[in-house]
Each structure stands twice: as structure tokens, then as C-alpha cells.
Input
Amino acid sequence: MHDPTSPHSPPRRIGSWTLIATAVAVAAVSFGYVGGWLAPHRLTPEKLVNQLQDNAGTFAGYRRNHAKGVCVMGYFDSNGGAQPYSVAQVFEPGRTPVVGRFAIPGGNPYAPDSSVPIRSMALRFAQANGQQWRTGMNSMPVFPVATPQAFYAQLQAQQPDPATGKPDPAKVGAFFAAHPETAAFLAWVKTAKPSASFATENYWSLNAFVFVDANGRRQAVRWRMVPEAADAGGHAGKAGDADYLASDLAARLAQGPLRWHLQVTLANPGDPTNDATKTWPDDRRTIDAGTLVLEHTEPQDSGSCRDINYDPLVLPAGIAGSDDPLLPARSAAYADSYLRRTSEEAHLPGTAAAHMPPEKTR
Amino acid sequence: MKTDPNTFTLAARVLHWLMAVLIVAMLFIGVGMVASVSERHEWLLAIHKPLGIAILILAIVRLAVRLRHPPPPLPADLPAIQKLAALASHWLLYFLMLAMPLIGWAMLSAGGYPVMLGTSLRLPPIFPVSPVAFAVLRQLHGGFAMLLFLTFLAHMAAALYHGLIRRDGVLPSMLRGRKTVPALIGYTDPPAAEGTNEVDTERTD
Output
């Protein structure tokens, strides 16, 4: 190409070429660092979701956590009780349609309902103004850990040993010993039993959020869904039924709607908003914001909750995230999980083909 | 202001450098937010969406400016392959700066997300809710971002090549205009005429 006799050929100058190469290299390396490719120690959403897959297996098309669940439809009747604290339209007196999902934790969509004592409720409130409130709640008042890094360490410790198909008790023990903040959760889990019904559970927001009123005043809050149903439930004992929660829910809804009361707890100044392992003192003011009414259920494979990412930071004006470090991590990891399962649904090249977890292969 | 056919118009230059900063920032924000689980994820995402719409609006204005005021011709002596590369990469850049925000907007629409530009400003959806479409658009958004970054690297390298190696007035035409800029870059021998490639007398090869 280069012809030194041509007056049109670019002069070769080592200094200039070096400058050009340096500019390109600096830009590319910075990009690689910010994008995480050159920062292998950074905890990324991808790593978190990979670890969830390592623990439970990869089930194409399913959520990477809380994979087993059912859709529910209904509405929220606001009584206006939260309106003085939040301008969110959902808290104005009136009705907001809800698409929700009950689930159990873990990445295996075929796990028996009795395998974990925790149940979860996710809700999407669709406000008339087009804004949405999405929330994912669990049936325990505290989360085991306070940070995404600790959550990642917990998942790593709980990864099944390929030899036994079960987590290594030594690793699990070492994790909890190294993380004293898990004490409140461990105390809860000691008394917790897998419930016979989704309907009788309380569901806590776990993370703190911030309500914003018409004057821009910010109030830290947590919320909880308190069930009206209080019976013990009748379907749990049936031997061999691993999916009793869905059948119990369908049986109850056939009798009539199920109701929960949205209880919003207002933090006092100084209450920690960045630590999901700690509850706030019992004397904090709690307001009843209205009633959640669930009327129908649908299987998750075809139901209207299937394609909803219950990202807890999809919030309407009037509700904001707090400084809880778990919130952005949940948002980021859910987005990664959502991209994986929708890509699998679209059969995009390079997406996971389903395979069973190690303990299920034989 | 007089119109010099050898330089970009003031509007084109202002749009170029403003958008250069915004687009490069946007690329770093984009890859940074999807690779983070920290609070950075949230505040970068909060910038990403309104900034994307700002870039979309600026890109439309810029396209109009470009069609109204054609850019100065490339040096006549530029090899055909380089001319082709310049032309193709410039239209690729235009395509990507328009497509990226639209794909991002469509992708959030397809995913069923409210497209929030702030705490209360919401854009209408521009695509029906569809998980398959979401996946395709989201992968396209990421893939085009990589393509845009590579095109930016090539564009920057080519600009420096024109400015430092060829010294053919292409870089000054986007900096301030050919008449005055060479001094700024430590080059005191202005090209005599359009398309004339200066000869570096210090060349030793």
C-alpha cells in the first residue's frame, strides 16, 4: 500500500503513531475497566446470577431465583391512609389493578413446596397515570445479610458439593460464623415451618424505601402485607403433593377473594434504612394504607405475571428507594435474570439450554 | 458569519463536540451500570434514560443540519478505500446515534416497563409488550453499543491520523476551521489549497 515516492502517502512518524495508539488504548482499557471485563474482582449482576445457577441449576425460561410460583390477579383498594406521606397515585383513595406472583425461593421451578420455609409475594400495581409500583416481599421480617457481597458469599457457601449434591455444612457454618448479622434471620428460621398456604402468610418489604409527600418531604418506610386469612390451611399434609401451595391457593380463590392489609411502618429519625438484617422497634407508627384483594390465579407458564420483572426499584413518583445497598443489587440482578429468561424464550443463539441440577441428573 | 466550504458550520461543530462528549459518556454509563450491583447502578440508570433521549433529539437536529449544510469534501488525494471508510463510518455513526435511543426506548416498552425519565416524567411506550421482542431489542442495544464504541475508536484514531500524520486539514475543519487552527496544534504551515497534501520536510524515511 505504502509508496514512499508518492506525495500523497502519509508521512510515518513514530511519535504521532504512538500518540494515536495510546489514545485508542487508553479509551479501550477505560471502557473495559468500567464495563467490568478488566475488573475481575468486582461483583457484577452476571456473577450473582451465575452463582444462583450454580446452586440450583439452569432452567431455561424461568426466573433465576424464586423460580417456582404462580400468578395472581386482583386489585388494591386504597383508603387514603398513606396519602399524607406519599403522592403516589396508588395511595389516593380508590382502586389500582394488581398483577402479582406468589413463589418460593430458589432457582429450581420443580422444588417441593416444603423444601423452604419462606414464601414470597411480588406485586405490580399499575397506576392510572401509567406509572407502576413493583415490589417483591418475603414471608420473613429480616433478610439474612445486609450487602450484595455478603449475599454472594452466602450463595457461594451454599453451592451444592458435586460429590454429595448438597451444600458442604462446613462451608455453610463458616459463612454464618463470619457473618454475625445473620443472627436475627437464623433466629427466625429456627421457628419457621414451611406454611401450608400462601394465603396465611405475612409478607415484608425487607428493604426500606422512602415515601415523598406533596411538599417533597421524605419519610423512610417499610411495608408489610398482613393476611386476613389466619387458619392453618388444609392441603399441606397430603403426602406426595409437592405443589400443595398452588392447589391450596386455587381452592381458596374458588371460595372467594383473598385479602391482605398493606401496613406501612414509618421510621423514626435514626432508624437504619440501609440494613435489611435489622427490624425497627415495635413502637414505630404503622398506618393501614388499604386492602390488597386477590381474585384469580393463573399458572406462571402462561399467566400474566410471567413476563413481569418484579424489580423493587420500579417505583412511581412518591415512592423512592432508600440507601439500602441490597436494592440496587436486586434491581441489577433481576434485570440480568430477566434478560436471560426472555432470551431463552426468544431462542436467541448462545442462551442456556435447560439442564437439571447435579443432584437431579440421575 | 461567512461560509467556508472547507470547514464544518458552527452548528455542526458545536453539535459534533457536544454529542461526542455525551455519546462517549453514555457508552461508559451504559456498560458501567450493567456491570454494577452498587448504588452506582441506580444513579447511572437514572442518567442513562434522559441522556439517551437528549442524544436522540440532538441526533435528529444534527441530521437536519448535515443534510442542509453538506460537510466539507474529503481531501481529493485521500485513497478511495479511506474515503469509503470515512463515508461508511460517518453514516454508521449517524445510524447508531439515532438507533440506540430508539432501541432502548422500544426495549423498555417491550419489557412492560414504564419508561421513566425522572421520578414522574414518563414517556409513552413505542412497542407492544413482548418478552421475545424485549430480548431481541435488549441484545441489540448491547451489541450496537459495542459497535458504536468500536466505531468511536476508529473515528478518533482516524481524526488523529488526519491531524497528526496526514495533516490534511480534516481535523482542523472540525476543530475551528482551517485558516486558524493549525497554529493551535503546533503546525504552522497551512495547506495551500483544498485537497493539497502538505509534504513533511522533516521526513527521513
Remarks:
- The CA atoms of residues 14 and 174 of chain B lie 9 Å apart.
- Chain B has one domain: 10-184.
- Confidence is low (pLDDT under 50) at residues 180-205 of chain B.
- Helices of chain B lie at 10-34, 39-68, 80-110, 131-166, 170-175, 181-184.
